Amino acid sequence: MCGIIGYTGRRNASEIIYQGLKRLEYRGYDSSGAAYLADGKLSVVKKEGKVEKLLPLLKDVKSSLGIGHTRWATHGVPSDTNSHPHRSGNIAVVHNGIIENYAELKGKLISDNYKFVSDTDSEVVAHLLNKNYSGNLLEAMQKTVKMLKGSYALIAICDSENRIIAARYKSPLILGYGSGENYLASDEPALAGLCETISILQDGDIAEVSSESIKIYDENLTPVSREVFPNLAVCCDLGLDNCPHYMLKELREVPDSVRFTERAFEGIRQKLSAILSDVNRAVFVGCGTAYHAAMIGKRYAESFARIPCEAETGGEFRYKQPVIDGRTAVFAISQSGETADTVEAARLALSLGAKVVAVTNSHHSELTRIAHVVVPVAAGPEICVAATKSYTGQVAALYLTANLLAKRQPEKLDKVYDLCKKTVAELNIGSLAQVCAKARGVYFLGRDLDYAVAVEGSLKLKEVSYVPGEGYPSGELKHGTLALIDEETVSVFIICDDLLADKSVNAVEQVRSRGGKTAVFTNVDRVIEKLRSETPYVFELPRCDKYLSPLLSAIAVQKLAYQTAVALGRDPDKPRNLAKSVTVE
Ligand code: F6R
To answer: 290 CB under 6 A from ligand 1?
Structure first.
């Protein structure tokens, strides 16, 4: 991944570019650069290292038009010369993607006497633009992209034209509409707070952006129109906000994810209600954490609407010949909206005639494009690979959706918002994290909704701390897993359902009597009274409606995972072997 941005308008382009690059830094941070026009002259500045290294080079620049790039190296080591923009004569370009045929193109350009200074694939684009330029950058871009194989989001400028030319194929690029100013960027967060509306370039589109207008063309330069959307990106700082890790910062944003998701829901209430009007069955699909949210969505819809429901992982659903018809709603849940298995599951559901509802934090992703309706998760950008606030946003969105499906009045979420804040601020589980860090295995146990949170807690802990374990229904313990329990294991119970509490307490006793360590997250008074004298790790959660308790117990298990990872010296933001968005099968 790399992040790219462009701006032209009445403000100082260098400031907008710098701030935009800071916001895009999570897409890559090994080097950055900018190109701008000042007094009709094209200048390029670039630097290896984090975006802040660019500041001294940009701080005195006054310009009304510029482009920028923050890099995650694919071809060529991180260095000043390999940084973008790449320049050829009077043209500069930034690129996100991979030019697969660059070696062949480079050979031809070298035989035409073009001199290469970098080891990147992207430099060929600069020279091709130069070669194809005969007084019109738009036409040069059209000719150039015809020669490229691979993926690209490109933004280019030229010293003799007061406009920015862009092109997209398989790498994201959005346009932002201002007044007397316009923007381009890899994603919405880069434009948060800057413009009210955006549109998304589609594969093959070429765009011409000046301060006064944005024009979009297809590959033949025939004008095309693209839908204009409100810019939903929450105006937020993508910095660490004085936290040592994004995981902690994003955990602290859990309450806002609930609150903003409730607000955003109002915008789709009517459309969703119409689409769900004759639904008599529901399937909830997602992968990883999103699948665990699907488990909760299933329970909500069953309990509130009393219709048959299923929860499936995307990878299973798409190959199991699902029984679906036009009265089935399929809820495809995904933070990124790009997860291949979830997107393919949604496509399969569409082909079988189902009503497909995307539940996503990414408002202009593939999933949003194919679904009949989108239930927005308004968690804001999530940088940490491990999902935290997007999960609670998904749970809030599913709670509201299931209530709508049942034509039932949901609880207002402002009360649980306060309780989330309290849990984030006050729940102190440092001592338990130390114990989990030394454990051979950590088991998460619960029943019903508590079980759904237990599997999420287990995934989170494994993912960021690498401590093995499992999420399990506490009633199932005695049917096999109990054999694993000894003094080197910790069993973490979630007990937030008053009706099932005594059954779960029995399971706590079963573990204790086999010498296993136990910990309990609960908001049931009699559980606290009974267990407090028996185990040092009883953590009290605020009382709330049982259906909303997953929002609070999720914070508890996320905190435990985070603190265990930190205790073990892991980087919770970038767990080994993983990536944030899994676009392969
Ligand atoms: C775990 C985690 C993953 C994702 C999964 C699906 O913390 O983040 O399990 O939930 O890869 O990703 P999305 O939600 O983008 O479809």
So the answer is: yes
Q: What is the pLDDT of residue 240?
A: 83
In the annotation, is 422 catalytic? no
Bigger pLDDT: 334 vs 51: 334
∠ CA 243-397-416, nearest 5°, is 65
Angstrom distance (rounded) from CA 582 to CA 585: 8
pLDDT digits (tens, 9 = 90+) for 546-582: 999 999 999 999 999 999 999 999 999 888 776 666 5
C-beta 582 within 6 A of ligand 1: yes
Nearest to 49 by CA among 73, 66, 85: 73
pLDDT band at 30 (very low <50, low <70, confident <90, very high): confident
| Token pair recorded at residue 137 | 């950058």
CA 48 to chain centre: 26
Residue 287 CA, ligand 1 centroid: distance in Å: 6
3-state secondary structure 157-224: EECCCCCEEEEEEECCCEEEECCCEEEEECCHHHHCCCCCEEEECCCCCEEEECCCCEEEECCCCCEC
Whether residue 334 has pLDDT greater than 90 = yes
Which of 345, 421, 343 minimizes the C-alpha distance to 389?
421
Residue 123, H or E segment = helix 123-132
Minimal-distance CA residue to ligand 1 atom 3: 288
334 touches ligand 1 (CB under 6 Å)? yes
The answer, yes or no, to whether any atom of ligand 1 lies below 6 A from the CB of 339, is yes
Task: Please tell me the pTM assigned to this model.
Answer: 0.77
* Index of the ligand 1 atom closest to the CA of residue 581: 15
CB 410 within 8 A of CB 417: no
Measured in angstroms, how far is the CA atom of residue 436 from the centroid of ligand 1? Answer: 23
What is the CA(153)–ligand 1 centre distance, in A? 25
Does the beta carbon of 445 sit less than 6 angstroms from any atom of ligand 1? no
pLDDT in tens, 82-96: 999 999 999 999 999
**pLDDT (tens digit, 9 = 90+) per residue, 441-459?**
999 999 999 999 999 999 9
Tell me, yes or no, if 158 is annotated catalytic: no
- pLDDT at res. 381: 85
Does the CB atom of residue 382 touch ligand 1 within 6 A?
Answer: no
How far apart, in Å, are the Cα atoms of 359 and each of 119, 195, 246, 356, 373?
41, 24, 23, 10, 9
Which of these, 91, 79, 85, 89, lies nearest to 115 by C-alpha position? 89
Which atom number of ligand 1 is nearest to the Cα of residue 292?
Answer: 10
Q: How far is the CA of 571 from the centre of ligand 1 (A)?
A: 17
End-to-end CA, the chain: 18
pLDDT at 187 over 70: yes
Catalytic residue among 46, 389, 559, 580: 580
pLDDT tens figures, 392-417: 999 999 999 999 999 999 999 999 99
Residue 34, strand partner residues: 45, 68
